[in-house]
Amino acid sequence: MILNVDGESNSIPPNHLAEILTGQGKSWALALLAGYFSLNGYQVTVACYSDYLSQRDEKDFRKNLDAFQFENKVEYKTFEAMCTDLSSLKNKVDKQSDQSILLVDEVDIFVSEYFESNVLKSHIEKMIRTAIRIREDMTKENLLKDRYQIFDEYIRLKKADGKYDKNWLVEYETSFYYLKLIYEKENSFDNAKSYRHNFGYLYISYGLISYSEIPNSFIGIFGVSGTLRDLSNGEQSLLEYYNIKRKSYYPSFFGHSKLKFDTSKDFHIKESKTDWFYGIVTSAKKQIAE
């Protein structure tokens, strides 16, 4: 039903989402869809918010479907990894999108606030400002002198408890202050040790990619969720933005839920925690007896 294949057309089926309850086959549905599109010549990306879940599902996919030999056309990735890949593709994106299918695990996460646009940071300006501030500080107030010290070839930051720790980094400040201390001591940079703890990481923004733009790089979008019915109006409108208009709701393996809740009869306020616990036990016994 997700594919909506009628045998009369070779085109990609319309974008489609399906509600499959938790523990009832979402991963397998995505694996079979990935196999189908792969066998039809498409590059398939199965996207998930969790790196752990993504690796787990990929392992199961390889184990059970390796015989079909389409593993080179099926990739399991997190949304973050997809952004990183897109930033390096440059002019290849348009060409790739003509043959790419996106399969989304947990659509509710896909359309949630997780998808927020990154902000392009003026990193060069920030680096220059930090370098100037450190130079001025060391020639004037020297306020940072007590904050940083070099012990055993590592620069260490003074924490709130007064102890110095090499594992604490403050972006560009740590890097530039280390170089300044080395130059003061050696009058050169020849003996500067390029340990990770001394330089940390220089945060350089090399592009701007919004998570919400990921789907626009694919020709077809399919996905599963255990809570498709519970999407808000705003989340539903986002699906329409991606031209996802078809939805299927699959029943539970275990039949219909027997939960019955009446807001007027089944809502109770107890005077104490003891009464509250007693009420829970009494209600549970009553339901079991029925």
Automatic annotation (TrEMBL):
GO CC aspect terms: membrane
SUPFAM superfamilies, per the entry: P-loop containing nucleoside triphosphate hydrolases (SSF52540)
Gene Ontology terms: biological process: protein import
GO molecular function (one): ATP binding
Domain SecA DEAD-like N-terminal positions: 16-70
A Pfam family: SecA_DEAD
Protein name as annotated: SecA DEAD-like N-terminal domain-containing protein
Source organism per UniProt: Rotaria sordida
